[in-house]
């Protein structure tokens, strides 16, 4: 499966989405083939169950994207879950689910001994339990923390991580990430032939990089 074959629906919520720098960052990064973003806060009033279920009918992967609000999802997302989740089982059974969070607190504080005292896995436990009810595959959590303090290099790195969460085939191994880069470069090279040398170099080094990753894994196993 190539990366743009995965059909992903992003369920996004942010009470201040028009003014939020992090939300704009997520929205711009999500402009990928076969990725749809449903901004819940743009829906006035109650959700129409039939319309919401229709969005789920053909997806392979569901991503919840939101800022942490007192260690919970925003109110509009909770409303969507209460309205849709029970009826969504036929469309979500055995599918994939992921979580992309934003927070103004440094990610390192979300652990035992940190200022927040709980991990993201603990905070997301109610959502992951919901997913387990439908035998969904839970993908690694992605956290955008303190965007305003990130360097341009860190921002570019996060864009790649987020786009991989949206479009890359699971499991997210080193080999899968390398193949994702090759496929992404192939698509970009079709638009800009000047990138062809970079693509050729990555393909030529692919086997060497895989061998290096395997060697590092063996070294870690002996530690």
UniProtKB/TrEMBL annotation:
Keywords from the UniProt entry: Oxidoreductase
Start and end residues of each Flavodoxin-like fold domain: 7-156
Entry annotated with the keyword Secreted: no
GO molecular function, one term: FMN binding
Keyword Transport recorded: no
Annotated PANTHER family: GLUTATHIONE-REGULATED POTASSIUM-EFFLUX SYSTEM ANCILLARY PROTEIN KEFG
Protein name: NAD(P)H-dependent oxidoreductase
Species whose genome carries this gene: Enterococcus gallinarum
